[in-house]
């Protein structure tokens, strides 16, 4: 029994690492979410409400539909193979969606509970939205959407099966439920992100208007930050490896540094390196280094110059 438990525990750790491993193209696909992540509390509340509704909805619908399919399989498939296949695929996707949605929901609860620091919480949320499990959820959601579009374009029809009279009624019910679910999700989005349900976070559209420019780095100082383009010769001069012998990554976007990319070395510590675009965006809204929290100001550059002259 202990051997079996150890085996399950080992596999669980491997699956967890794979699930939360950063997807290489995640930054490109999901960078539009950064504006939403800047509203940390709203994002967490949106995920919590939206996914609780989704998990409950998917559980009830998929279990009911799966039971119906197995009990009427020999009737509905010979009668209408296309509609039956569509029905089965939609049901399976709803079942599969329970896995990533549940995992993401648990992670958002953990982030809220364990992250008192807003910056760390936002960074963990960014890491979550770049992970394989988030991508899996995104792919399933798009596949589900494509099936409903296919239904509206090619399958819409009024029919009746005498041996299974509820068949087309259930299919239409699925479609109406999908539309209602979409309306609820869109309403939640507007409530949390457009109308600022949480009073402690600014409206996303008006964020730049109310921005405190005393808490961001000026363009003059941004130009003083050392910039380097990585190539085969200098890659390992600036970029090291972590404990798992994997190349270090930018802690803002969670993607590894690669040849051809532009990086910036912050004056607080030349080992604090980031993608140029990432740190520029960060410092346009913050005045501190993402790693050590030191203020990026002219004093640091002057201090570094004086130390260089001494040496």
Average predicted local confidence, pLDDT = 78
- Secondary-structure element string: HHHHHHHHHEHEEHH
The structural class is mainly alpha
Strand content: under 5%
Q: What's the story with the biggest beta sheet?
A: 3 strands, antiparallel
For the record, the count of structural domains works out to 2
Task: Enumerate the spans where pLDDT stays under 50 for 5 or more consecutive residues.
Answer: 199-214
Output the radius of gyration. Answer: 25 Å
What is the tally of beta strands?
3
Neighbour order of strands in the largest sheet: 1-2-3
Straight-line N-to-C gap: 64 Å
**Helix fraction?**
55-70%
- Described by the principal axes of the CA atoms, the overall outline is elongated
- Give the count of helical stretches: 12
Task: Present the secondary structure layout.
Elements: H1 2-19, H2 26-30, H3 34-37, H4 40-79, H5 81-114, H6 118-129, H7 132-155, H8 167-194, H9 219-224, E1 226-229, H10 235-238, E2 262-265, E3 273-275, H11 276-283, H12 298-310
